[in-house]
């Protein structure tokens, strides 16, 4: 190294000359899928014959930025997930490595278990729901790009199409009093992958673990630390498979892709 190089201050993330940090994705797939109804764990259910988590893993591996995917498997299903990855040739080819770890009781716990498995050299982490199997690679890349450009936390999101009411929740189908109507123009429906500077996400998960119950997304935990989170455009095909009708929509999207692209 020349004396000139030794004296040069480290380039900021995104600045010319900055070394691109290695990116990994944590893929939480350990949920039961209660809202989808009885059956296998949701991530193992098939869309057009292929398990949902394989669709999601392929979507992440399609990004040139993603070098490692940590799949967080249903607690008793790690061996099955490993076999599925092998069977679908997602066994650590030349660009993307795969690791499988068992998940926890909540999404937050599962993500933390995935983070604990990351190697030291990872600088950027994506967290992507296996339940969003059809996210386009352009959305994955846009999130990575925004983190590389210096944002500590990035979420893809879409404007809402419904009007939203805040209510006083009641159980048992009783009518719920409306408390207000937030301005729709300021609301966004948040998707995944959410992208983070690794240290920021680790700090959020480590400091908010005890009182973090109820955090429905990772960016929300970063917000609780008082750190900035930014939104990039999401995609309608990155919707979450939650209820039975979502399976119908997902298969329709796959059929449309097949018709448009021939695969
Ligand atoms: N203990 C859990 C719970 C959820 N997840 C994952 O988090 C993502 C988003 O969660 P959600 O859609 O709520 O999935 P489920 O928890 O499976 O659904 P449900 O709440 O209907 O049971 C899914 O990919 C799911 O597998 C997880 O890894 N570990
Ligand atoms: C992370 C998430 O997909 C962002 O919309 C969502 O919050 C997950 O919620 P769920 O209740 O675990 O499905």
UniProtKB/TrEMBL annotation:
- Which parts of the chain are coiled coil? none
This entry's Gene Ontology molecular function terms read: 2-C-methyl-D-erythritol 4-phosphate cytidylyltransferase activity
Q: What class of enzyme is it?
A: transferase
Provide this UniProt record's keywords sorted from A to Z: Isoprene biosynthesis, Nucleotidyltransferase, Transferase
EC annotation from Swiss-Prot or TrEMBL: 2.7.7.60
Q: Where is this site: Transition state stabilizer?
A: 35, 42
Reaction equations catalysed: 2-C-methyl-D-erythritol 4-phosphate + CTP + H(+) = 4-CDP-2-C-methyl-D-erythritol + diphosphate
Q: Where is this site: Positions MEP for the nucleophilic attack?
A: 184, 240
What segment(s) does the record annotate as region Disordered?
1-22
Cite the annotated pathway: Isoprenoid biosynthesis; isopentenyl diphosphate biosynthesis via DXP pathway; isopentenyl diphosphate from 1-deoxy-D-xylulose 5-phosphate: step 2/6
InterPro entries xrefs: IspD (IPR001228), IspD/TarI (IPR034683), IspD/TarI_cytidylyltransf_bact (IPR050088), ISPD_synthase_CS (IPR018294), Nucleotide-diphossugar_trans (IPR029044)
Q: Does the keyword tRNA-binding apply?
A: no
Gene3D superfamilies attached to this UniProt entry? Spore Coat Polysaccharide Biosynthesis Protein SpsA, Chain A
Q: Where is the composition biased (Low complexity)?
A: 8-22
One short Pfam name that applies is IspD
- The leader peptide range reads none
UniProt entry tagged with the keyword Transferase: yes
State the PANTHER family in the record: 2-C-METHYL-D-ERYTHRITOL 4-PHOSPHATE CYTIDYLYLTRANSFERASE, CHLOROPLASTIC
Protein family (similarity comment): Belongs to the IspD/TarI cytidylyltransferase family. IspD subfamily.
Database matches in NCBIfam families: ispD (TIGR00453)
Q: What is the stated purpose of this protein?
A: Catalyzes the formation of 4-diphosphocytidyl-2-C-methyl-D-erythritol from CTP and 2-C-methyl-D-erythritol 4-phosphate (MEP).
Q: What is this protein called?
A: 2-C-methyl-D-erythritol 4-phosphate cytidylyltransferase
- Source species: Streptomyces physcomitrii
Its gene name is ispD
